[in-house]
Amino acid sequence: MRKSLIGLLAATSLGLAACGGGGSGSEATPEVVEGGGNECTAGNTLTDGILTIGTGSPAYSPWVENDAPESGEGFEAAVAYAVAEQMGFAKENVTWVRTTFDEAIQPGAKNFDFNLQQYSITDERKQTVTFSDRTTRPTRPSSVTPIRRSRR
Questions:
Q1: What mean pLDDT comes out for the span 118-131?
Q2: Mean pLDDT across the stretch 116-143?
Q3: Which member of 28, 48, 50, 87 has the greatest number of CB atoms within 10 A?
Q4: Do 103 and 109 contact (CB within 8 A), yes or no?
Q5: Backbone φ/ψ region at 102: left (φ over 0), alpha (ψ -120 to 50), beta
């Protein structure tokens, strides 16, 4: 089964779209609050100064440790906080919401700025979801063989 992390691209796009030049420069820039985003994210999140990230319910290890994404432990939780930091959000200005599988991928309004969890990529889902590049290849198993050295 192919897995992908969605949202990473969406998070980057959120910031880049807000900073994409070409404007006349006459638009008013929303005020940036310390730790609450940057000039690229101001006015582009569900709640000004807060980055809302969606994740599964429950969220599984190793992606999120102990079903607690706010801890920052686990691959997805750590990536989420790293992305948030790059976007100018302090950890205390990041909130998490839980979504079901269907809620996260169905078209329409969302209760998160981006969603970070694993999904199989299908042609049908590509019609409504923007997937990031695949970060794992579970169909290609990997193993580690310990090296044993004998003492003679």
A1: 82
A2: 71
A3: 87
A4: no
A5: alpha
Cis peptide before 62 (omega within 30 of 0): yes
Token look-up 């209760």 returns 111
Contact 90, 150 (CB under 8 A): no
Q: Which two tokens stand for residue 28?
A: 């008013």
Is 22 exposed, middle or buried (CB count within 10 Å of its CB: 0-12, 13-18, 19+)?
exposed
CB atoms within 10 A of CB 145: 5
Alpha helices in the chain (DSSP H): 8-19, 75-86, 101-105, 123-126
The pLDDT value given to residue 135: 61
Query: Taking all residues of the chain, what is their mean pLDDT, rounded to a whole number?
Result: 75
Element (H, E) at 8: helix 8-19
d(CA 58, CA 75): 15
Q: What does the radius of gyration of the chain's CA atoms come to, in whole angstroms?
A: 19
Could you give the angle at the alpha carbon of 55 between the alpha carbons of 99 and 102, nearest 5°? Answer: 35
